[in-house]
Automatic annotation (TrEMBL):
<dbReference type="Pfam" id="PF08240">
    <property type="entry name" value="ADH_N"/>
</dbReference>
<dbReference type="InterPro" id="IPR036291">
    <property type="entry name" value="NAD(P)-bd_dom_sf"/>
</dbReference>
<dbReference type="InterPro" id="IPR050700">
    <property type="entry name" value="YIM1/Zinc_Alcohol_DH_Fams"/>
</dbReference>
<dbReference type="InterPro" id="IPR011032">
    <property type="entry name" value="GroES-like_sf"/>
</dbReference>
<feature type="domain" description="Enoyl reductase (ER)">
    <location>
        <begin position="10"/>
        <end position="330"/>
    </location>
</feature>
<dbReference type="InterPro" id="IPR002364">
    <property type="entry name" value="Quin_OxRdtase/zeta-crystal_CS"/>
</dbReference>
<protein>
    <submittedName>
        <fullName>NADP-dependent oxidoreductase</fullName>
    </submittedName>
</protein>
<dbReference type="InterPro" id="IPR020843">
    <property type="entry name" value="ER"/>
</dbReference>
<dbReference type="InterPro" id="IPR013154">
    <property type="entry name" value="ADH-like_N"/>
</dbReference>
<keyword id="KW-0560">Oxidoreductase</keyword>
<dbReference type="Pfam" id="PF13602">
    <property type="entry name" value="ADH_zinc_N_2"/>
</dbReference>
């Protein structure tokens, strides 16, 4: 099968198309023929080597974190899926590899594809959908009437998080560039801050939650908009020691995260709010719940561009330039024979 493989860490000429054997199945695995995948900032971070301390992958590595496709084979212990099922998934972090024609995935990380979307739309959902779910539902337990600020509302994560937060009954503020203001309002944002003309930190007050997708200065200023007891959940800021321990990091790495996150944690403490880093985990049950919301019309995947599989490197470059509105999808499957 054809796959796009990371041969060494770095930004330039490190990913290339190669022929690989179709993956072997473990007892609890389904083998999916991949019809579509999508590009995430996480793929770029892995490629660049930014996550090496947390995710010590062995190279060469097939990149890719989202898939929609058809089950073509199942392991002997699989009970929930059968050949022919249309599915979507975010594979577990140690078994990524969706920039390929086939992938073996643990059945617990897989869900039936929502009926109301096609393969491209389904492939746009798993990673960002699970991140939004785990931030807003699991961690923050967002309730009706709460105020939530979601940074970068026009991005892949932001566009889904706005829709989910509205469904949970929150008042939603978001930041975006001038050209996307009306568009994020259509997604459901109640208050839209054009970051090119307005400073969100002087406009917003007494928020319960900030979902930070930017890190850096945006993260620093996010503490100012929270009420006491509020929280910042970040997918872009420094991991804190609690996260590192849960992730199974060694003692040195836990110490490193303590140092890296020190100033952010101190800011949070001074303002009587909390800070936590979120690294999404694979979860087929949650994907099932998200799929139900998609089929109910509550959440709509947002796609900026679709590339053919041969142009995966162009798709990566397009996401890297940071201009995507919603997700960038790669269509993988042709009508070729099953293994």
């Amino acid at each position: 099968m054809k796959a796009f493989v990371l041969t060494r860490y770095g930004k330039k000429n490190t990913v290339e198309p190669v022929e690989r054997p179709v993956p072997d199945l473990r007892d609890d695995d389904v083998l999916a023929q991949i019809h579509a995948t999508s590009i995430n900032p996480l793929d770029l971070k892995i490629r660049n080597g930014e996550l090496k301390p947390l995710l010590p992958y062995k190279l060469p590595l097939v990149l890719g974190n989202d898939l929609a496709g058809i089950v073509v084979k199942t392991g002997p212990r699989v009970r929930r899926f059968a050949p022919g099922d249309a599915v979507y998934a975010k594979p577990n972090q140690d078994r990524i590899g969706t920039f390929a024609e086939y992938l073996a995935v643990d059945e617990n990380d897989v869900a039936k594809k929502p009926d109301n979307v096609d393969m491209n739309e389904a492939a746009a959902l798993p990673l960002v959908g699970l991140t939004a779910w785990q931030a807003l539902v699991d961690k923050a337990r967002v309730r009706p009437g709460q105020k939530v600020l979601i940074h970068a509302g026009s991005g892949g994560l932001g566009s889904i998080a706005i829709q989910l937060a509205k469904h949970l009954g929150a008042t939603v503020a978001t930041t975006t560039g001038t050209r996307n203001v009306e568009w994020v309002e259509e997604l459901g944002a109640d208050i839209v801050i054009d970051y090119k003309t307005t400073d969100f930190a002087t406009e917003l007050r007494d928020y319960d939650l900030v979902l930070d997708t930017r890190g850096g200065r945006t993260l620093d200023r996010s503490f100012q908009v929270l009420k006491p007891g509020g929280q910042v959940i970040s997918v872009a800021g420094p991991p804190e020691p609690t996260f590192a321990r849960k992730f199974g990091a060694n003692r040195l790495l836990v110490q490193a995260t303590r140092a890296l996150s020190f100033s952010v944690r101190r800011k949070a403490k001074r303002r009587s709010v909390s800070y936590s880093f979120l690294f999404m985990t694979a979860n087929g049950d949650q994907l099932g719940k998200l799929g139900a919301l998609v089929d109910a019309g509550v959440i709509q995947p947002v796609i900026d561009r679709v590339y053919p599989f041969d142009s995966t490197l162009d798709a990566l470059a397009y996401v890297e330039n940071g201009r995507a509105t919603g997700k960038v999808v790669v269509t993988v499957a042709g009508d070729h024979d099953h293994p």
